[in-house]
Amino acid sequence: MTSPMTRQAAVTVRVFTQRFSSTPRGARLARRLSLHQLDRWNVPYGSGVSDAVGLLVAELAANAVTHGRVPGRDFELVLTYTPGLRLRIDVSDTRGERRPAAAVPGLLDEGGRGLLLVDALASRWSVLDRVPVGKTVRAELDLDS
Fold first, then answer.
1. d(Cα 100, Cα 47) in Å, to the nearest integer?
2. What are φ and ψ of residue 52, in 5° steps?
């Protein structure tokens, strides 16, 4: 006996990919262009998702240019949006030996809170090896339908 075929709604996955210079200006541009792209995908400026993505991209891009910078090499941003399901942010750099880890900073430390912010905003995040060289920090937001 065979089971009846059920139809599932088609899902359109939208992808935005861009490389940026490993400079503070490149990190700012990555944040601005990601918010612009979300708006083009009907995720309006100032919405909860847009604000969360802006903060996540800003932090991951800042980490890429601060800790993952290799002179003469860019970092890459990839946004993958599945409407109603998930938004994934991948920021890749070419420095594979320096892997981020969330740690609780001391009260007087000037830095070290960025990944705590990523951990609080993202549904999940991870660090992946990048082929042929480097690493990718991935943050995902689960979206309510």
1. 28
2. -65, -45
